[in-house]
Amino acid sequence: MPETIYTTSQRYDLAISAGLVVITRGISRAKDHWGEAVVTLTQYPAPPDTRAIRPPARQYRCRGGNYDMRGKVVGYWIGDQFPDGIKKLDCRRVSGLVFLPPCGVPERHVLYHDGDQVLLDGGCGYSCMQGILWELGFDLVCIHASHNREDYELRAL
After folding, report:
1. Cβ atoms of residues 120 and 96 within 8 Å
2. Is 0.90 topped by the overall pTM?
């Protein structure tokens, strides 16, 4: 296990609040993108208690092909789910994470500096996004799969 970014209780709370993560594959029916592959990640967060109304789902979508589309949508989701934790990572330890300095600075940073733009390049592969989750102290476990849908659960390590 890497150095701890989140405490054990924080990891368990974040894992429970993540709820169900569903990745679906389909074909676009949009006018300008008819027939292109589409991958959608939908997060159904767990309600705060059993009597509460389920919060609205969040969706991340990509289309096209010739890159790992499942990794791309998982990268979008990780960026929204763990914005502070990602800033504590070292780019040399994980693939697919880039800290871009403000305009005019030619080199990329290895560690996050104030004002940097954080990019998660999920197109490099789903396994790279799993590595980033592992560095944060989590694992995304598939609990059900069919030909066009995969259900995942976030688990604390």
Report:
1. yes
2. no
Joined together, the tokens standing for residue 106 give 């030619």
Q: Both tokens of residue 156?
A: 């604390």
pLDDT tens for each residue of the chain, 157 residues long: 456 788 999 999 888 888 899 999 998 887 777 888 899 999 987 766 655 566 667 899 988 877 888 999 999 999 999 999 999 999 888 889 988 888 766 777 888 888 888 889 888 889 999 999 999 999 999 999 999 999 999 999 8
Q: In 3-state terms, what secondary structure has residue 146?
A: coil
Q: Which two tokens stand for residue 149?
A: 């849908």
Name the CA dihedral angle for 25, 82, 94, 20, rounded to a multiple of 10 degrees: -30
The strand pair at 58-64 and 20-27 is best described as: unpaired
Measured distance CA(61)–CA(72) in Å, rounded: 9
Tell me the β-bridge partners of 50.
Answer: none
Return the closest-CA partner of residue 126 out of 77, 58, 85, 64.
77
Question: CA torsion 30→34→38→44, rounded to 10°?
Answer: 20
